[in-house]
Design goal:
Layout: H1 5-22, E1 25-31, E2 35-41, H2 46-56, H3 62-70
Antiparallel strand pairs: 1-2
Length: 76
C-alpha cells in the first residue's frame, strides 16, 4: 500500500493545525476601511482553515465533510 499526495497533504496540514492549536499565533493586519485589527490563528480558526484548504485542494470531498459534521460512519 502506497501513500498518495492527498494523504501526505492531509497529514502535513493535520500536524500544522495541531501546532497552531497548542501555540496560537496573533497577526496584526491593516485593512484600509477598518484600520488595524488582530487575527488569531488558534483553536477555533486553525482546523477550519485546514479543512477549507483540503477541500479546495480536493483532498476532501463534500461527503467526507458532511459525515464529519453530522457524525455518521463514526464509531468508538
Amino acid at each position: 500500500m502506497t501513500i498518495d499526495a492527498p494523504s501526505w497533504a492531509t497529514l502535513a496540514l493535520f500536524f500544522i493545525s495541531t501546532v497552531f492549536v497548542i501555540h496560537p499565533v496573533s497577526l496584526h493586519v491593516r485593512i484600509p476601511v477598518i484600520g488595524r485589527t488582530t487575527i488569531t490563528i488558534g483553536l477555533m480558526t486553525s482546523p477550519l482553515i485546514c479543512i477549507a484548504i483540503l477541500w479546495a485542494a480536493q483532498c476532501l470531498g463534500a461527503t467526507q465533510i458532511r459525515n464529519g459534521i453530522v457524525g455518521t460512519g463514526m464509531g468508538p
